[in-house]
Design brief:
The chain has 263 residues and is α+β, with helices and mostly antiparallel strands. It is built from 8 helices and 8 strands, in the order αββββαααββββαααα. Strands 1, 2, 3, 4, 5, 6, 7 and 8 form an 8-stranded mixed β-sheet that branches. Helix 2 runs antiparallel to helix 5. The longest helix is centred in the first third of the chain and has 37 residues. It is elongated and about 65 Å long. The N and C termini lie far apart (67 Å). This is Phage-related tail protein.
Length: 263
């Protein structure tokens, strides 16, 4: 019996030691992967990998804005959960991915919108891919054929903060739910992160467009201004009106109008 206790104690110590070493390493590589994905710095506060439960928990993730924007962070996520299912030689099945508490801060500079910029960054090739043009070995070819299928992808408690000259408000975005993401054959391992990120960012973009806000180059402010002018019955441009009337009054009226439209 004493031997059994000693074995159990040893296994417990080994489990703690593995967790102690694996979690910091996992956190480092996860941050590095996310930074490569978004082409922007990423910060992770808590990383917890549970080997026996085949699950991963990441808390308090922040993705910084591209360098040419004023505010530090473009998006933050309170909690990320991943549960791994069956794995065979060709397909990795992820039973569940949940993202909870996603907050995106929409911002526009002189030439671009951060949401559009991040979507563009996702399509850019990685620098590592360009510089490492080495012949692919049989082992690397096998890893490239590995695919991932997500049985259930869910993103909930999504908020979209709009911060422009003419409108400062926060939208509640409908939850995102997808079953069998990647289809029966799955998505290549090296593309799964990009496809999930695209799914989320495109949903944010669609939520804006349903409110009549286009996220193209220099479009947000112009689009909002047109709607404000129409609702206020202003024939001239708002720049001209500013010289004659109190700007704060116009902005307050604009906020009330957009609130009535569900913004």
């Amino acid at each position: 019996m004493k031997i059994l206790y000693k074995i159990l104690a040893l296994l417990a110590i080994l489990a703690l030691a593995i967790a102690f070493f694996i979690n910091p390493i996992g956190k480092h590589y996860t941050q590095k992967y996310a930074q490569t994905l978004f082409k922007s710095p990423v910060e992770i506060s808590q990383f917890s990998l549970h080997l026996f439960e085949k699950s991963l928990n990441i808390d308090f993730i922040k993705v910084q804005n591209p360098f040419n924007f004023k505010h530090k962070d473009a998006l933050s996520l309170d909690h990320f959960l991943l549960k791994i299912g069956p794995i065979n030689s060709h397909l990795i099945v992820i039973d569940e991915i949940k993202l909870d508490g996603l907050q995106f801060a929409l911002e526009q500079n002189a030439n671009q919108v951060n949401l559009t910029q991040l979507l563009t960054n996702l399509d850019k090739p990685d620098n590592n891919t360009l510089t490492s043009a080495k012949p692919t070995t049989q082992k690397s070819q096998k890893s490239q054929t590995k695919r991932i299928q997500i049985k259930h992808l869910e993103v909930r408690n999504i908020s979209l903060k709009i911060n422009t000259k003419w409108l400062k408000t926060t939208l509640k975005v409908p939850n995102i739910s997808a079953r069998n993401f990647g289809g029966s054959s799955g998505i290549p391992v090296d593309k799964i992160g990009k496809e999930v990120a695209k799914e989320i960012l495109h949903n944010l973009k669609n939520a804006l467009e349903k409110k009549g806000i286009i996220t193209g180059k220099k479009e947000i402010e112009a689009n909002l201004r047109r709607q404000i002018e129409q609702k206020l019955g202003i024939k001239g441009s708002l720049d001209d009106i500013e010289k004659q009337f109190d700007t704060d009054d116009i902005k307050n009226k604009a906020k009330k109008l957009f609130k009535g439209l569900g913004l």
